[in-house]
Write a structure and sequence with these properties.
The protein has three helices and no strands. With 105 residues, it is an all-alpha fold. It has one domain.
Length: 105
């Protein structure tokens, strides 16, 4: 494996770990279900995308890449859909969004 490819893989993995870590911190630190759903869907999807792209580069372009790309499409569709469903369920239950004057929950 050449050095440029290895550097790209490591960079993608580092990006994936970073965005997944930001997602975890956001879920812990943000004040309400709506903000948590947003960070969980956005940054977690981006982090998973970087990791799957690193796997694609590591394996090379063969039959396993098709599986990785299908996994990436699945993640890009299901993560935002699940976050939307969670936020909608919270809204339908009457959970009010956090506003600046509210105390942190």
């Amino acid at each position: 494996m050449n050095e440029i490819r290895l550097a790209a893989i490591l960079l993608l993995l580092a990006g994936g770990v970073f965005f997944t870590f930001v997602s975890a911190v956001g879920v812990i630190r943000l004040p309400d279900v709506y903000a948590r759903a947003h960070t969980a869907s956005q940054t977690d999807t981006l982090g998973a995308g970087f990791v799957v792209l690193a796997v694609v580069l590591a394996y090379g372009f063969d039959a396993d890449v098709i599986k990785a790309v299908l996994l990436l499409v699945f993640i890009f569709v299901t993560n935002p859909t699940a976050a939307h469903a969670a936020a909608r369920a919270a809204y339908e239950e009457g959970i009010e969004p956090w506003t600046e004057g509210d105390e942190r929950r």
